Amino acid sequence: DAMVIQNPRYQVTQFGKPVTLSCSQTLNHNVMYWYQQKSSQAPKLLFHYYDKDFNNEADTPDNFQSRRPNTSFCFLDIRSPGLGDAAMYLCATSVGQGYEKLFFGSGTQLSVL
Amino acid sequence: DQQVKQNSPSLSVQEGRISILNCDYTNSMFDYFLWYKKYPAEGPTFLISISSIKDKNEDGRFTVFLNKSAKHLSLHIVPSQPGDSAVYFCAAKERSYNTDKLIFGTGTRLQVFP
Lengths: 113, 114
Description:
Chain A is mainly β.
């Protein structure tokens, strides 16, 4: 059974039209992460939540926001998508004890037209 | 500036032979390293890890070696199997008491042919 679930698998949006990607987990993990991966590049951390505490990476654009209404769900909001935001978005979870592996979802491939 | 580097974008190995995937890092504060495997249309899955206090960790056909002085680690797969064909990501993290956030390399695509 899938433990980290991302919906949808593929998302198409228009330039400038807000879009929300969703992630849910059945692991009851404390920490949830959002990574962005562009073609042939390394996955890049955008932000993470430890419980309800939000931690933004210094170079994450303001265009990207996140919400975590409860332990199980986390959302990535892109307020005004640009062509450069087309990428695979990966959600991951971990226990949050410093030496734990991350569990990834299958990702959402975002296209911006 | 890439803190974790995988300089070989691809590797092709014959079934039954050894696959060696390499990874270099620049941040001396990294103290835990992981390898992830990714099939097309799936998320990365954890493969093996190593703490900086060790120089080797083995799990079945997979062995990771760490050379701290050279800031280099490698993943050995022996014997290689066609099902090992995937993209392999090296990842590293700094010591933290409450998060496990990882810095990833760009990946190496391994192809194992019969």
